[in-house]
Amino acid sequence: MNQNAPATEPAIRVADLRKSYDDQVVLDGVDLTVPAGSVYALLGSNGAGKTTTVRILATLLRADGGTATIAGHDVAAAPVKVRESISLTGQFAAVDEILTGRENLVLVARLRHLGHPGTIADELLRKFDLVDAGGKRVATYSGGMRRRLDIAMSLIGRPPVVFLDEPTTGLDPQARLEVWRTVRELADGGTTVLLTTQYLEEAEQLADRIGILHRGRVIVEGTLADLKALMPPAEVQYVEKQPSLEEIFLAITGTETTETTEGSLR
Q: Of the N and C termini of the chain, which has fewer Cβ atoms inside 10 Å?
C-alpha cells in the first residue's frame, strides 16, 4: 500500500448515496472518501450493498439519491468523463479464453483506439509477470494468472481510479497472494484502488483505510489502527502459536512467499 499518498483532492467522494429496488433498500445513505493514490477496502457481507455501490460509481447503475464524484467528475452529470477516469474489474475474470494473453491485451488497446497496441501489451505482460505465458491461450492459465491478466487489461489507458469488486473470490491461497502483490504495486504507482471484499484478512493486508458497509450504510470507517481502537484493550496472554491453515497449505505445497497472514498491515 502507499503510505505516502499525496494530500490532494480525494479521488472518490460519496455523500448520502441511496438506492432501492421496489421496497428493498440497498443503500441507505452511504458516505465515503478515498484519498488519491490509496487503497480503500469496503467490507461487508453478501447483500450489504458493496457491488451496488461500485456499479453506481462506475456509471453502470443510477442512484436514487446522493452525490458521487470520481477524479473530480460528477458520476450523474458527467458519466463519460468518469468512464475515462476509471477501470472496473468484477468478481470473475473477463478474459477471452480462446485468445492468448497478449492477444487479449492487444484487443483491448485497439478497442480503446490507442496507438502501438503491441507495445502496450508487451509492457503489461512484463509488469504483471506474464511474459512467458503471453503467447499461450488463456484457457491454459491458472486462476491467479487469469486474474492478473484481467487487472492488466483494466489498466490499459492508465485510468487513475480502479475498482476491484471481490477480486480474489474463488482463488486458491497462492493466487490470492499474487493478486495482493498486484494491488500493492498499483497503489505504489499512484493508482487509487477501491477494493470490495468479504475477506477481513485481505483488508488488513492491503488497505490504507477501511469502511464497513452494513445494512446500506458505512457504519465505521478509518485506518486499521482506528478500527482496533474501538475495541477494549487487549489482554496479554501467553499462548502457543499454532500455524494457520493457509501457512500449512503453503508449506506443504512448497510455495515460497514473503507475505505473512498474521493480520498485520504493511
A: C
Distance CA 51, CA 67 (A): 17
In this prediction, residue 138 carries a pLDDT of 95
Query: How far apart are alpha carbons 17 and 45 in whole angstroms?
Result: 19
Helices (H) and strands (E) in the chain, counts: 9, 10
| pTM recorded for the entire structure | 0.78
CA-CA distance, 92 to 165, in Å (whole number)?
Answer: 9
8-state DSSP, 93:
-
User: Fold for domain 12-95+159-252?
Assistant: Rossmann fold (3.40.50)
Tally Cβ neighbours within 10 Å of residue 217. Answer: 18
Average confidence (pLDDT) over 207-231: 90
C-alpha cell, 9: 483532492
Q: In Å, what is the CA distance from 257 to each residue of 212, 251, 254? A: 29, 10, 10
Q: In which order are the strands placed within the sheet that holds 39-43? A: 86-89, 161-165, 192-197, 39-43, 209-214, 217-222
Which one of 91-95, 134-138, 150-154 scores highest in mean pLDDT? 134-138
